[in-house]
Write a structure and sequence with these properties.
The protein has 257 residues and is α+β, with helices and mostly antiparallel strands. It has a single domain, classed as 3-Layer(aba) Sandwich (L-fuculose-1-phosphate Aldolase), CATH 3.40.225. The chain contains nine helices and seven strands. The two termini are 15 Å apart.
Length: 257
């Protein structure tokens, strides 16, 4: 039995399922074209281990990541699982900030897409131009750029700026989303990315835009908060995640290994 196989035998079924879900998220990020070679990272809290989480091995493309290749680390960045790879220090700082401060958050996702970073460079961030944008604005906040995220002191400010929101625009950097499940965090990233792409498309058209009246913005944002809440009629990720897994399974099931 190999070291990896022996380690698989030692972990709980809950941890293995978390690994499968996170590996699926990495593959879906690749499928949707949100990757940045080896850059960016997604993480998930290890079930029943509040001070441990899983993150990608720094050196694998997202299309190569499998459940067994994910690295387990603690909140200090210590590697707890057998691996030949390192962990991206910036990924550790950003993700550990949220995992340490918010026990209810299981998953954190971070991307550097052209659309997300393009909007992150704009002074006013995500603009209330579309219905899609209003759904995201309802749970979005902003964090000012402080350079490459290797300073542990930045963790406090990341947590402060995120607050109770699900989307954090990292100014001049990219997007970050969080969720109680991998599915919730992924769907918030999908929605935020989509809103940013639509905004850039509107701006690039070079024509006068139809503005949504402020009272309609307020009503729509509040309706989104109600609908997306755990008790609402469309809690984020509940219906979408199983559908996304079916889509991924039709293409490639190797992420489960």
């Amino acid at each position: 039995m190999s070291v990896a196989e022996d380690y698989r035998e030692q972990m709980t079924e809950a941890e293995w399922q978390a690994r499968v879900d996170l590996a699926a998220a990495y593959r879906l990020v690749d499928m949707f074209g949100w990757t940045d070679l080896l850059g960016t990272h997604l993480s998930v809290r290890v079930p029943d281990a509040k001070d441990q989480f899983l993150i990608n091995p720094y050196g694998l493309l997202f299309e190569e990541i499998t459940a067994s290749s994910l690295i387990k680390v603690d909140e200090e960045g210590n590697v707890l699982s057998p691996t030949e790879y390192d962990v991206n220090p910036a990924g550790f700082v950003i993700h550990s900030a949220v995992h340490m401060a918010q026990p209810d958050i299981a998953c954190v996702m971070h991307t550097h897409t052209a659309a997300g970073t393009g909007v992150a460079t704009q002074k006013d961030g995500i603009l209330p131009l579309t219905q899609h944008a209003l759904a995201v604005i309802a749970t979005t906040s902003y964090h000012d750029y402080e350079g490459i995220a290797t300073d542990l002191d930045e963790r406090e400010r990341i947590v402060r700026d995120l607050g109770d929101n699900r989307v954090l625009v990292l100014r001049n950097h990219g997007l970050l989303t969080v969720g109680r499940t991998v599915g919730e965090a992924f769907v918030w990233m999908y929605r935020a990315e989509r809103a940013c792409r639509m905004q850039l498309a509107c701006q690039q058209a070079g024509v006068e835009l139809v503005q949504i009246p402020q009272d309609i913005q307020d009503i729509t944002i509040e309706r989104n908060r109600e609908a997306n809440a755990p008790g609402g009629h469309r809690p984020v990720g509940i219906r979408e995640w199983p559908a996304l897994l079916r889509k991924l399974d039709r293409a490639d099931q190797s992420y489960k290994t």
